[in-house]
Amino acid sequence: MNHSIYTADKATHLKVVVSVLLTSIAIVATTLTARLTHPEIDVQKATTQTVYEPRSNHALTEIVQRERHPI
User: Does the residue 59 lie in any domain?
Assistant: First the structure.
């Protein structure tokens, strides 16, 4: 097996391509299995917050409120 990417022959290239392909198939299969067995976990469900509602846990809320100037 060649240890340099510049001098790699066809067999080494084939080994790398096959290993990457098998790894990607394993990752996709694991992801699909996890999503199908736990449908209540949805990555796309995002909670929205209103911009104008001041949050007490944000330190920048007070700074922004001080810098507002009436037009």
Answer: yes
Domain count, the chain: 1
pLDDT tens per residue across span 3-53:
777 788 888 889 999 999 999 999 999 888 876 666 566 555 556 656 665
Query: Which structural domain, as residue segments, surrounds residue 38?
Result: 10-67
pTM to 2 decimals? 0.46
Bin 57: left if φ > 0, else alpha if -120 < ψ < 50, else beta: alpha
CA distances from 34 to 20, 22, 27, 42, 43 (A): 21, 18, 11, 11, 12
Give the alpha-carbon dihedral of 23, 28, 34, 35, to 10 degrees.
Answer: 170
The answer to whether 19 and 26 are in contact (CB under 8 A) is no
